[in-house]
């Protein structure tokens, strides 16, 4: 799998580490980056050797969303079509991150702003450096949180906090994000990548069928009543119970050894 200079990908021991690599522009997105990243993620989704994904940014920022140099009204011949930009770029990207079978770990190494913040929140498990922050900067330019931001924020932190975060555009520190349940954990900046890689490797070594079903079950729970969800749980559990991984897990437990999951 080849890299673009703006999107770096390295696959090691079942973990695909993806780095947004425009540090001079705080890893803000261009149309080309969207196309490349979506294409690479689609390839990884179909790759049986990829069992977990780790997403991070190069330099001092994770991602600041759309590169506003491409939205400068002084350079445009007409009004921008943000509906088209979202439906063809950010929306397919965050949808793929949430639907891809592999668990996606996000290591937020610095500021995550605008759609960049919501790109991080679309991942399954988010670690943030202690000097990182999350900013719904849309309020500063007269927009609403997009890339799923207005959907995911109230589900993570509640309506009151979501409205304040979105309407004021005030930064949310990594510590506050952790305390509010916006992310899983804050870690020291110096150990962010080592901890994120260890977590991604642990997930890659784990029962990937069960992990994929867990991801789907939790995300789809919003669409079900409790009784409906119990039925879905039973169906998914029935399928997992027929897998070789389940048999291996039970035998390993009884033999008091580490299970070797093969994803079948």
Structural notes for this entry:
It is a single chain. The protein is an alpha/beta fold and 264 residues long. The protein has 2 domains: 7-204, Alpha-Beta Complex (2-enoyl-CoA Hydratase, Chain A, domain 1); 208-254, Lyase 2-enoyl-coa Hydratase, Chain  A, domain 2. The protein contains 10 helices and 10 strands. It has helices at 31-45, 82-99, 115-121, 149-157, 159-168, 174-180, 192-204, 208-220, 226-241, 244-254, and strands at residues 7-12, 15-20, 52-57, 61-63, 104-108, 111-113, 125-129, 133-135, 172-173, 185-187. It has a 6-stranded mixed β-sheet with strand order 1-2-3-5-7-10, sandwiched between helices. Helix 4 (149-157) crosses helix 5 and helix 8 (208-220) runs antiparallel to helix 9 (226-241). The chain is globular. The mean pLDDT is 95.
What is the CATH superfamily classification of the largest domain? 2-enoyl-CoA Hydratase, Chain A, domain 1
Tally of discrete structural domains: 2
Largest sheet: 6 strands, mixed
Biggest sheet: strand arrangement = 1-2-3-5-7-10
General shape: globular
Residue windows where pLDDT falls under 50 for at least 5 positions: none
Predict the CATH topology of the largest domain: 2-enoyl-CoA Hydratase, Chain A, domain 1
Q: For the residues shown, what is the average pLDDT?
A: 95
CATH architecture of the largest domain: Alpha-Beta Complex
CATH C-level class of the largest domain is: Alpha Beta
**Helical amount among residues, as a percent range?**
40-55%
Strand content: 15-25%
β-strand number: 10
The radius of gyration computed from the alpha-carbon positions, rounded to a whole number of angstroms, is 19 Å
The sequence of SSEs as H and E is EEHEEHEEHEEHHEHEHHHH
Question: What gap, in angstroms, lies between the N and C termini?
Answer: 25 Å
């Amino acid at each position: 799998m080849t890299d673009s200079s703006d999107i770096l990908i390295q696959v090691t021991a079942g973990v695909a580490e993806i780095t947004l690599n425009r540090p001079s522009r705080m890893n803000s997105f261009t149309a080309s980056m969207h196309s490349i990243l979506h294409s690479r993620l689609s390839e990884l989704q179909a790759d049986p050797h990829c069992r977990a994904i780790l997403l991070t940014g190069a330099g001092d920022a994770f991602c600041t969303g759309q590169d506003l140099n491409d939205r400068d009204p002084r350079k445009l011949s007409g009004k921008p079509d943000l509906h088209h930009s979202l439906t063809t770029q950010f929306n397919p990207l965050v949808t793929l991150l949430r639907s891809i079978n592999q668990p996606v770990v996000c290591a937020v190494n610095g500021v995550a702003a605008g759609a960049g913040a919501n790109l991080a929140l679309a991942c399954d498990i988010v670690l943030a450096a202690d000097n990182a922050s999350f900013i719904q900067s849309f309020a500063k330019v007269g927009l609403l949180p997009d890339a799923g931001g207005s959907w995911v924020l109230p589900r993570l932190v509640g309506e009151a906090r979501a409205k304040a975060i979105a309407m004021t555009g005030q930064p949310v520190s990594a510590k506050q994000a952790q305390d509010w349940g916006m992310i899983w954990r804050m870690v020291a900046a110096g150990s962010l990548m080592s901890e994120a890689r260890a977590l991604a490797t642990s997930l890659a070594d784990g029962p990937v069928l069960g992990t994929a079903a867990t991801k789907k079950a939790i995300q789809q729970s919003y669409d079900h009543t409790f009784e409906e969800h119990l039925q879905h749980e039973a169906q998914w559990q029935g399928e997992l119970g027929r897998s070789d991984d389940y048999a291996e897990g039970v035998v390993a437990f009884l033999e008091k050894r580490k299970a070797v999951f093969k994803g079948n």
